[in-house]
Amino acid sequence: MNAVSSIAPSMQYEEPNEDWTIEQLLQWCHQRSQDEISSKTNELINALQQLYDNAERDIWHLHQLAVQNTGTNSDIDIDGDRCETNHDNVAAVHNKDEVCGKVEMNADKTQEQHDNSTCNPPDTNHDQGTTATKGKKNKLQQNLLVEVLTGPHEGATFLLKPRPSRPCEIGRSKGKKFLSRGVSLHKDSEVSTCHGKFECKAGKIYYTDTGSTNGTSYMGEAIEDNIPMEITNAMVLVFGMSELRFTLVDN
Prior knowledge:
The protein has helices at about 1-10, 20-70, 85-115, 125-140, 175-180, and strands at about 75, 85, 140-150, 155-160, 170, 185, 195-200, 205-210, 215-220, 220, 230, 235-240, 240-250. It is an alpha+beta fold. Strands 4-3-13-12-9-10 form a 6-stranded antiparallel sheet, with no helix packed on it. It has a 5-stranded mixed sheet with strand order 6-5-7-8-11. A two-stranded antiparallel ribbon has the order 1-2. α1 (about 1-10) packs across α2. The longest helix has about 50 residues, at about 20-70.
């Protein structure tokens, strides 16, 4: 054991030579193997840590989006196995009580009006005006035609129908809401899982980058996170490696 200890320091700095014994050579080979194993182990640990950090960031981002979409008071399980909406259940109970109370009040009012009214004819002009106003609002709603100009999905097109209460999302995810009514750029590794969303506000369509890793660019400049940008005809935005052109179309 003393002999091994005495040769160990020299083997860290010297290369094998003809004067070395078999024991010294084996010890040198062992030390070198240990160093290589340690180096490879550190590389693997760093790579796994990077993957873990990326996954954690994406999961947290999904959690924040889920909270925004379902309400700040809803309890959401990050694993995606369940979504506890105790707040909605409580609200439903209160709404039920309110509806019952309103039905009773309306019944009393209806009876009283029947006894005291002179049966005036309904104001059909007002009803027609209301219907016309609703129809006008529906016509103001627009859809969004998306054309992929460059990137892994070049040539693909999407028709988005964002509504005030139902935004359309864009990202690398292949989830149902991305495939059915959003934009899934699942082949573009530079696009975040949930990159951004398109919303309809006051008859106009806006895009918001929801905190993506690599951001969204317009005319060579990165747009600010979580600040809506109005979409105009022929506007081109860059998501990762993909260039997308947007065209407003009537509903």
